[in-house]
Amino acid sequence: MTKYTVRKYQKSDYKTWNAFVAQARNATFLFHRDFMEYHADRFEDFSLLIFENQKIKAVLPANKAGNSIHSHQGLTYGGLVYEGSTKLASIIEIFKAILFFLKENEFEKLYFKAIPFIYHLQPADEILYSLFLADAKLVRRDSLSVIDLSQEKNISKIRKRGFQKAISNQLVLKEENDFESFWNEILIPNLADKHQAKPVHSIAEMNQLKALFPNNIHQFNVYSDTKIVAGATIFETETVAHCQYISKNEKQGNLGSLDYLFQYLIQERFAGKKFFDFGISNENQGKNLNEGLSYWKESFGAGTIIHDFYEVETANYSKLETVLI
């Protein structure tokens, strides 16, 4: 039916997978097996490798849940990863081969989480066109607040006043290698109070990931005298500085701590990146927007890009059979 063969990832594929991800045009360190497997106990891995004449052409980070496959639920984004030379017609054929493989293995649906374009090293929206051709259903849409760092920053007056307040309060900013103080004194209490929730990552997991990816994961803390008052955890990729966690001590009042921190992150520390990604302000699978949080991010000059999630019937591989003319 197709020149492509698909098979499930095996532990023996570790080096092959990572070598492919390292040169792909739309991959980040989140797709390295060491990152994917830090929470292997929570997800039943069902990642796929796609070959043409025994040469790897694409990979799909994925996990199994019931009789469905998800492009990995343990990752912020997790779509089809492919190399720079792969053409649109080939991606359509590769996606057809994936759907056929899943159908043959009695999976009814594939839930597909796209990779936002800001993380691409080269344009790589071929898979979105393929999803359209396969009659994929849009089931969730998140809004990311993103600053294009190549453009002039439109920072609001209130953020500038906050920065000056931080200067007058003699706040101190530090980049640190441990996560204990931010997690225990700021992040965990805030999430418990506001959302009755816990951080996705434990301190032990963050320490593990930092050891594995020291150049990609960063912790920045702000102090008033010796007391931590705010912090941010940044995941750095080749094109993007992404805020994984942001939080401040709500009981300290408005010291200007986050204005001070983000002035540094945006204007200095990550100024050489293409984009600064504050992440989402959505809840309820994208159906609700935290207006105050969204406005706060926009006050630094952020605009909106979208992150889409799809559901596609594996039987729809047949819809891709007559596309190419």
Task: Describe the structure concisely for a colleague.
The protein has 325 residues and is α+β, with helices and mostly antiparallel strands. The protein is built from nine helices and 17 strands.
Explain what you see.
- The protein is built from nine helices and 17 strands.
- It is of the alpha+beta class and 325 residues long.
- Strand 15 (282-283) and strand 16 (288-289) form a beta hairpin.
- It is elongated and about 65 Å long.
Question: Counting H and I runs of at least 4 residues, what is the number of helices?
Answer: 9
| SSE string, helices as H and strands as E | EHHEEEEEEHEHEHEHHEEEHEEEHE
The pLDDT mean sits at 96
Question: How would you classify the helix and strand content by structural class?
Answer: alpha+beta
Please state how the strands of the largest beta sheet are arranged side by side: 2-5-6-8-17-9-14-13-12-11-10
Main sheet summary: 11 strands, mixed
Task: Tell me the β content.
Answer: 25-35%
Radius of gyration: 21 Å
Shape: elongated
Query: Total number of β-strand segments?
Result: 17
Main attributes?
325 residues; 30% helix; 9 helices; elongated; 17 strands; alpha+beta; four-stranded antiparallel sheet
